[in-house]
Amino acid sequence: MSTTPDLSALREALRLAHENVVRHGGGPFGAVVTRGGAVVAVGQNQVTRACDPTAHAEVVAIRAACAQLGTFDLSGCEIHSSCEPCPMCLSAIHWARLERLTFAGTRHDAAAAGFDDELLYRELALPPAARALPTVQALRGEAQAAFEAWRALPDKQAY
Amino acid sequence: MSTTPDLSALREALRLAHENVVRHGGGPFGAVVTRGGAVVAVGQNQVTRACDPTAHAEVVAIRAACAQLGTFDLSGCEIHSSCEPCPMCLSAIHWARLERLTFAGTRHDAAAAGFDDELLYRELALPPAARALPTVQALRGEAQAAFEAWRALPDKQAY
Prior knowledge:
Two copies of one chain form a homodimer.
Chain A: H1 7-24, E1 30-35, E2 38-44, H2 57-69, E3 77-83, H3 87-95, E4 101-105, H4 107-112, H5 118-125, E5 135-137, H6 144-152
Parallel strand pairs in A: 3-4
Antiparallel strand pairs in A: 1-2, 1-3
């Protein structure tokens, strides 16, 4: 992986973000996954047109890159996002094992356009019972069976 | 929405979690979305079998519920998860506007089975430049065009 950011991929993410607004009326966000300088997959925010609240640009690009490469592990790839990823997307980047993130707009730019992640950052920092989201924990004992089955599973594919 | 948790839906999430391990060799996680006490959609962790690192049980259930109801807004619905959701899933629950979360296993149970979210919680609490994930910010000025287009868009569908 190059030590300098790939500004052409970042500019493509910005182009996708702008196109998503003016062509599709979608959210102003785009993302590009690359490997060795080559584009693997791209994404645009599709929350409204796909009826999918998880279809942020980064998640769309990650899912497309995994489908393209036939793997759930994007080690060796990096992602370029038109804007600082929200906590969902940052977590998806983590689970996908992407090796670098380059972004253009900041969370403050996003907030100024009506996309404010601050409540979510605050929620994540709290223990479940203290969150604004009503949260109940129950049946912890019964929850162990699935974990025990996983521990006992031979030849399991860790992820 | 009932004031008491729906233990039958939570037990179904636990059954799905166990089934996912023993039948599919998948991760020990299941989730159920309900509305007014009726099941709308369910999910099992499909990271390995679907080659999708975002296919955690909660995300799968949310996407299925949205497809079922034809909306990106699950207001009026709640989610039952076999285990405390990871930050990606908790964020997805937030974006989907689910109104309550009930879970069984804790993040400590998950960690004991090899699924440790602690690094991710720490990452999310840090500013981007301080994270373990190499992160670069660039082209902030060029990033404004998409946001300006969004602000200027007439009749936009906010989400």
